[in-house]
Write a structure and sequence with these properties.
The chain has 249 residues and is an alpha/beta fold. It is built from ten helices and eleven strands.
Length: 249
């Protein structure tokens, strides 16, 4: 199966303008994400999708592949769809790799690539058991529940499932069951990507501000893989300093 890794990268950001070009130990963040992605053996190729000439030039400068896309897209999924429509049908699947995770583990990419490679898979993503008590009730940490076959049932910013008979104490809840947080990497079969990119926003999506709920609400299946690798995203300038402790060149 031919799988294209796409790294959406916008220059505009409310909290951190120019984030992809921030320097982390001598290299731009987008270069670090690109180089980590290239280490994933199951990817056929990797390309950056951007709407900004500065990012385009930076990727060309370090020898990477990059394509310009519209500045009107609302999500990385839409940007990925434009890329796949422009280059034809030479790829069977696409992996949307977050452009703000400079330390993404290539094994995470390989894992989701293996999930989307099965004949029955439409969409795939990853999740990780919650082990930090502070994350359990944090609305910025998206949770997921899935069925016995690993297909996502629902994603929420609230803690799911709700333990009706338990005190709202994180330690108590985590002693009773395993909760999972969503890792924001997606894989799509190319034909599915073209369909979901054209779906109107759904009620559940608008309620939780989670685009994957639009896919579930339209009866698409998301295969979930469980990973033990932690993802660390750069959301603010302060995160750059914090992330250096994870740095391994």
């Amino acid at each position: 199966m031919k799988i294209l890794g796409i790294i959406p990268a916008r220059y505009a950001s409310t909290r951190f303008p120019g984030k992809p070009l921030t320097i982390i130990n001598g290299k731009t963040m987008i270069q670090r994400v690109y180089e980590q992605s290239l280490k994933a053996e199951l990817l056929t190729d990797v390309v950056v999708a951007t709407d900004d000439q500065r990012i385009y030039d930076a990727v060309i400068a370090f020898g990477g592949k990059v394509m310009m896309t519209s500045s009107e897209h609302n999500s990385g999924t839409d940007r990925c769809c434009e890329i796949i429509e422009n280059i034809g049908s030479q790829y069977d699947a696409v992996i949307n790799i977050q452009g703000d995770e400079p330390f993404i583990n290539p094994e995470q990419i390989n894992q989701i690539a293996a999930l989307i490679s099965t004949e029955e898979s439409q969409l795939a993503s990853l999740c990780k058991p919650i082990k930090d008590e502070d994350e359990l009730f944090d609305e910025n940490v998206v949770k997921v529940v899935f069925d016995k076959n690993g297909k996502a049932l629902y994603f929420s910013r609230q803690t799911i499932p709700f333990l009706r008979k338990a005190d709202k104490n994180a330690k108590s809840w985590m002693e009773q069951r395993t909760f999972y947080k969503h890792i924001g990497i997606y894989a799509y079969k190319t034909d599915v990507l073209k369909v979901i990119a054209r779906l109107p926003q759904s009620g559940l999506e608008l309620a939780e501000c989670l685009e994957q709920l639009r896919w579930l609400e339209n009866s698409f299946e998301i295969k979930m893989g469980i990973t033990e690798y932690e993802s660390y995203s750069i959301d603010t300038p302060q995160d750059v300093e914090k992330c250096l402790k994870f740095f391994k060149d």
